Amino acid sequence: MNLFSGTTTSLATPVTIYFVESNRDTRPFNYYSVQLYGVVVTGITQNTTDVDVSAASQPTETVTLEAAKYRYSETTHTPSGGPGTPISFGWDCTRNAAF
């Protein structure tokens, strides 16, 4: 089900989500990333954990994505805590095969 008409992204250009780590001793680096190809937004929800709706609350938002292809990349840590060798794996859901 396509919840939002016209929201599918390109199979050639990925949407990339980065996970960044930093500390006082090293520069920030992307230790994990997920590239999504042919992305469709299938759901968005907002919630609050407060029972008392009149109280100040911190809402949470959940965005659900489906993609035709995924590529996962992890950058390992060196003994000194810096970035090491990247490791990647991709899966094409439409062909049920690695890419």
How would you describe this protein?
- This protein is mainly beta.
- The protein has one domain (15-98): Hcp1-like (Pnp Oxidase, Chain A, Roll).
- It has strands at 15-21, 29-37, 40-48, 59-66, 69-77, 83-92, 97-98.
- The strands form two sheets. Strands 1-2-5-6-7 form a five-stranded antiparallel β-sheet, with no helix packed on it.
- A hairpin with a 4-residue loop joins strand 6 and strand 7 (97-98).
- It is flat.
- The model has no long low-confidence stretch (mean pLDDT 82).
TL;DR?
By secondary structure, the protein is mostly beta strands.
How are the strands of the largest sheet arranged?
1-2-5-6-7
The low-confidence parts are none
The main sheet comes to: 5 strands, antiparallel
Give a count of the beta strands, DSSP E runs of length 2 or more. Answer: 7
- Termini separation comes to 25 Å
Q: Nearest-angstrom radius of gyration?
A: 18 Å
Assign the CATH topology.
Pnp Oxidase, Chain A
CATH class: Mainly Beta
Indicate the mean pLDDT. Answer: 82
Second-tier CATH architecture: Roll
Structural class: mainly beta
Assembly type: single chain
Q: Could you estimate the helical fraction of the residues in percent? A: under 10%
Instruction: Compute the number of helices.
Output: 0
- Strand percent estimate: over 45%
What's the shape?
Answer: flat
Features:
flat, 99 residues, five-stranded antiparallel sheet, mainly beta, Pnp Oxidase, Chain A, two-stranded antiparallel sheet
